[in-house]
Amino acid sequence: MRLWIKYLIGAVLGIVASFVIPMENPAVNAFFSGFSEFAIRFARYTLLPLLFFGCAFSIYRMRETKILFKTGFLSIVSIVAFTLILLVIGLISILIVKLPRIPIPSEKITEIPNINIKNLVMMIFPFSGFDSVRDGHYLLPAFVFASFIGYGCSNLKSEVKSVISLLESASNLFYNVTTFFVEWASVGMVAVSCYWIFEARATFASATFVPLCVMLLVDFILVSVVIYPLVLRFVCKDPRPFHILYASICPVIAAFFSGDSNFALQLNIRHGKESLGIHDETNYFAQSLFAVFSRGGTALVSSICFIVIVRSYSALGSTISDVSWIFCSAFLISFVLGGIPKGGSFVALAVLCTLYGRGFDTRYLLLKPAAPVFCSFAAAFDVLSALYGSYIVAVKTKKFDHVEFKHFI
User: How many CB atoms lie within 10 A of CB 325?
Assistant: First the structure.
């Protein structure tokens, strides 16, 4: 059975269970909340060692074949391009369609979410390099440490042949171990989707946030079915631009119901290798960069939500200067959300409100009830962009093999 079918069955069973099981019961709710968190932890259990050894050996291989700079440059360009595309689509959609105002809540804030850039920078270089592989949320420190090891191996390859063999063997080992965890994580999708439906039920029941959810759904369909296939067709001259969309079904399902982009990262890596034929060195390297920096979906969602908040509090329309400020702010904020794989769009929205000032510091609370839903859409956008972007990098560096649809996992 194909992997995406397993995850889809798990998600559907969870949705059905949410309407049958009395989730309002505190004991039942606590059970499914714990089971959902366990499933996400289980799926991410081997992520760090897989990326560490995979990226270290990838850096070595790419430097040996002299494509390290080209791969890195194309990855950065792709990340920026996809972020711009999504942000433009989000702003155009919310400026064209006037969503209904949302009633002002009476909830008071106790702590405003923020992004501590200083801590993010310090975490890249902890006091010990081994500490970089301890945090399963922020993947950049492990990527940087692995890069130094891979780069060092290419300088001393005759003296460290055993280390190079170890990196390659460990990379293959953890990929095989990850395959086991990824397969069984589909069972956990029952709890993940069940608990997500419970959290999102109030959002859909009130009908207040339904227009916003519909807009995000329409934008996602537009991007996945029209925009990204056109980009692939134009950039790569690919005669079958929808094969990546097919390969992304499983990662998108996992990302949407978990709201966690790291939860779907191992799925992206598996589909990148086995379904799209991306070579390991490009797959590990590009997927890691996209996982940390490519948050175009988060930028799209947070910018739409911010304009909804502004319109709900004011009858005045958005000026050109306001739209420009939102565009630039959301664009820049998206690149410092690497340490927040889950709920990043809500944090980005809070930061936008704080930076905007004018009494909007705590007005992100207006959309707090809908946070589980719009954070899910943001994660789905980001995972989809990562798979498309990694494939484009692989095509441009000629580091991929053609895989027939029948061989997709």
Answer: 15
Gap between the Cα atoms of 234 and 85, Å rounded = 14
Confidence of residue 123 (pLDDT cuts 50, 70, 90): confident
By the 10 Å C-beta count (0-12 exposed, 13-18 middle, 19+ buried), 8 is classed as: middle
Contact 310, 112 (CB under 8 A): no
At 266-316, the pLDDT tens digits run 999 999 999 999 999 999 999 999 999 999 999 999 999 999 888 887 765
Work out the number of other CB atoms within 10 angstroms of the CB of residue 241: 18
Cα(336)–Cα(341) distance, rounded to whole angstroms? 11
CB 107 within 8 A of CB 321: no
Per the document, the length of the chain is 409
Q: Which residues, other chains included, contact 58 with Cβ-Cβ below 8 Å and sequence gap of 6+?
A: 150, 280, 281, 282, 283, 284, 285
Mean per-residue pLDDT, 312-341: 84
- How open is the CA angle 280-41-339, to the nearest 5 degrees? 70
- Distance between CA 231 and CA 162 in Å, rounded? 42
Written as six digits, the tokens of 116 are 């501590």
